[in-house]
Amino acid sequence: MEIIRLYALLVRRPIESSRGAGVLSDSSMITFKLEDRVFILTGAGVSAESGIPTFRGAGGLWRNYRIEEVASPYAWRRDPRLVWEFYSMRRRVAGAAKPNPAHLALSDLEAQLGDRLFLCTQNVDNLHEQAGSKRIAHMHGELFKSRCDRCSSGPFPDAATYEPPAELPRCACGGIVRPHICWFGEMPYQMDEIFQALDRCTVFIAIGTSGAVEPAASFAARVTRRAKTIYVGPEEPANRGAFADWYLGPAGELLPELFQGAMT
Ligand code: APR
Q1: What does CATH list as the number for 1-10+21-52+99-140+187-264?
Q2: Measured between alpha carbons, how far is 15 from 248 in angstroms, rounded to an integer?
Q3: 9 SS3 class
Q4: Closest of 27, 54, 32 to residue 250, by C-alpha
Q5: Dist. CA 136–CA 147, nearest whole Å
Q6: Residue nearest atom 28 in ligand 1 by C-alpha distance
Q7: Helix, strand, or coil (residue 104)
């Protein structure tokens, strides 16, 4: 098991030009061969067109807090009410959101590729599920689940909001119920399964993720020598050097076209 935790990269490489180290693809479709195994990594950008704000860039702050300041074990110990206020707001926003054409294109792709597609998301919303995707690795957890911060009882479905003056939710053991989210400094979920899929893939596609948070930021570099690596999003990511091809634009506009007739 590789010991790997959720970290924001402190240093970002500057983005010099849209052609830099990779190739701005001029093909309008991505095609797969029968023997391909496809790993897809999605980030906040995939849900942006559904009205869920991304973490970095414009609109990336909540009441002047950076995500790293309200999503950590330290923040939880210091002020669990503030943390629940933040996640209650996120539950409300995500609860009202509907999947966009990017989510639908990914679910269509799963219908074509079956278990040759591995969908790994950093997103904690349930828009991939709502779009019909069946097999999803939620490496950063799920917004509509909670768990005890003390005992080992597993995560349970929970769409409630807990905002002052409401009391903090409690487990029968006396612990406080916390969001089932991988916070900064914690171990992302399903990593064994994710690394196995990375090591098997022949095509790696990252969509709508800034490449600023580990361990996902290193996935492309891990596979780039033997798999085709592709990025889809409106801006080049911080880890752009690991990608062979880029498709620059909003995922909801690009993916339906890129995956049209994906099987050759
Ligand atoms: N289509 C595709 N990509 C988009 C779109 C869009 N319509 N709009 C914005 N983006 C891109 C931005 O260009 C940016 O590169 O989405 C990316 C969002 O980056 P982040 O906000 O950093 O999100 P992400 O990479 O998913 O963050 C990783 O960090 O805060 C933690 O746990 C949190 O899962 C999150 C992790």
Answers
A1: 3.40.50.1220
A2: 14
A3: coil
A4: 54
A5: 20
A6: 213
A7: helix
Query: What is the spatial distance between Cα 73 and Cα 136, in angstroms, rounded to a whole number?
Result: 25
The mean of the pLDDT values for the chain is: 90
Q: Which residue's CA is minimally distant from atom 34 of ligand 1?
A: 122
Q: Distance from the CA of 164 to the center of ligand 1, in angstroms? A: 29
How many angstroms is it from 54 CA to the middle of ligand 1?
A: 5
Q: Which residues of the chain are in CATH 3.40.50.1220 domains?
A: 1-10+21-52+99-140+187-264
CATH topology of domain 57-96+148-181: SIR2/SIRT2 'Small Domain' (3.30.1600)
Contact between 86 and 65 under an 8 Å Cβ cutoff? The reply is: yes
Confidence (pLDDT) at 27:
66
Annotated catalytic residue: which of 128, 138, 140, 180?
Answer: 140
Q: Where is pLDDT greater, at 27 or 31?
A: 31
Rounded CA-CA distance 165/92 in Å is 17
CA-closest residue to ligand 1 atom 25: 209
**pTM recorded for the entire structure:** 0.92
Residue 167: exposure state from Cβ atoms within 10 A (0-12, 13-18, ≥19): exposed
Q: What is the pLDDT of residues 162-199, one digit of tens each?
A: 998 889 999 999 999 999 999 999 999 999 999 999 99
Pocket of ligand 1 (CB under 6 A): 43-45, 48-49, 54-57, 67, 122, 140, 208-210, 212-213, 233-235, 237, 250-252
User: Is residue 140 annotated as a catalytic residue, yes or no?
Assistant: yes
- The values of phi and psi at residue 256, to 5°, are -60, -35
Give the closest residue (by CA) to ligand 1 atom 6. 250
